[in-house]
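Q&A log
Question type: sequence-to-structure
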Amino acid sequence: MSTRTRRDPAPVEWTTADVVAYLAEQGQPMSASGWRSYVARGQAPAPARRVGRTPVWDAAAVRAWQAARPGRDWRAGLSGPARRPPGAD
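Response status: OK
Response body:
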């Protein structure tokens, strides 16, 4: 993980590889191309800036996005197998 400040030894800006590694550590693995796609569609934070051609993200923004990200099966709203409406048989 990349840029560090004097006071804070933790990185404050992450590259794509850093973001992907963080998401994997959090149990939400994603490929680098998947991350870039999320960013391109506006479903993930935009890069804070670029270092040359390399986009970097604010680590706090990525952490906040990941914490607010819905987990698996969020669309179904069900904890078990999909339910059929009554009389659908």
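Response note: DSSP finds three helices and three strands in the chain.
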